[in-house]
Amino acid sequence: MDTFFKVMVVMLFAIAASIQLYQQIREVLFYKKMNWDFDVDNEYSGTTFHTDGPHEDYKESNRHRVLVGRPTTLAIFWAIVFALIYGFFILGVEFN
């Protein structure tokens, strides 16, 4: 596989993980300022759903999103980034 393609794949996942990290930092700072009152909605929380349904009853609570949902997403995205870096550039994995 071309090195340029490998770099682009790694960068794509790194950018997505960085955006998630930025959103998480903003939310943690917001709720810290609000004395950890998760009943207050913030304007940059985004919408996170338990499933793919658009119904309100599927919506995650603020507490769950900040303390469980997004940290889990961050762990998965960064694990993918590091696995791709390790596989592509250290082990030299090629896909034909």
UniProtKB/TrEMBL annotation:
Record bears the keyword Transmembrane helix: yes
Record field: transmembrane: 7-25, 75-93
Name of this protein: Transmembrane protein
UniProt keywords, alphabetically: Membrane, Transmembrane, Transmembrane helix
